[in-house]
Amino acid sequence: MTDRYEGSFYGRRKGKPLSPSRTKLVEDAMPRLALDLGSPVPADLTGLFDADVEDVCLEVGFGGGEHLLHRARENPTTGFIGVEPFVGSMAKVVTTVVAEDIKNIRLYDDDAINLLDWLPEASIDLAYQLYPDPWPKKRHWKRRFINQQNLDRYARVLKPGHQFRFASDIDTYVDWTLRHCRDHAAFEWTAQCASDWKTPWDNWPGTRYEAKAIREGRIGRYLTFLRV
To answer: Which CATH number do you get for residue 195?
Structure first.
């Protein structure tokens, strides 16, 4: 039986309408910031950025952008590709990138599968997926992004010896991810003791989804897998 799901792995794309000023800002900035998957695939992703970067990280589903922006600010020589189909979240990040003139971020506002299939093989130094939509009802589990096919995609674009990081406060999704990565030959869980998966990564900024989980009594789990 396959995990393949033909359809989107995210929910709604639009919430409250953007203000006219923010709409214009996004329209003006996105041609410069957004990746064009219709263009030839670059041999070296570092050339995608306005900054001189040495390596490239990928965050799929950046939500409010807290983690993406924090990492980009603290690592100016690393390029960050952020994926988020939700219009409001994308607008928030674009506004901050423009206001702070952050030069080491590029964005993609559609299905992450398209981007993963476009990226060159072994081109990403680190990949994050943090607090993704858990699709908590069992009949919706097929819509969870972590599955055999998407792990194949992550494995293809990640450099061997580099990491895929996943965080969630939903126990069934944590178990789901552990099982799928355990069964995938390209990934190895790096945890040596319980604190390894109960403790966020260094300089963790937190996210609004994590804060919501804590308020509601749930605890985040932080999984690190090595691309072997």
So the answer is: 3.40.50.150
Q: What is the pLDDT of residues 13-64, one digit of tens each?
A: 566 788 888 899 999 999 999 999 999 989 899 999 999 999 999 999 999 9
Residue 44 appears among annotated catalytic residues? no
Q: Evaluate whether residue 103 is within a structural domain.
A: yes
Residue of 133, 171, 196, 202 with catalytic role: 133
203 domain residue, yes or no: yes
CA distance 5 to 143: 7
3-state secondary structure of 203: coil
Terminal CA-CA length for the chain: 25
Q: Binding site annotation covers 143? A: no
Q: Is 159 annotated as a binding residue?
A: no
- Which residues is 226 bridged to in the sheet? 163, 188
Return the biggest CA–CA distance within the chain. Answer: 51
Q: Which residues, at least 6 apart from 161, have a Cβ–Cβ distance to it below 8 Å?
A: 226, 227, 228
Q: How far apart are CA 156 and CA 63, in angstroms?
A: 24
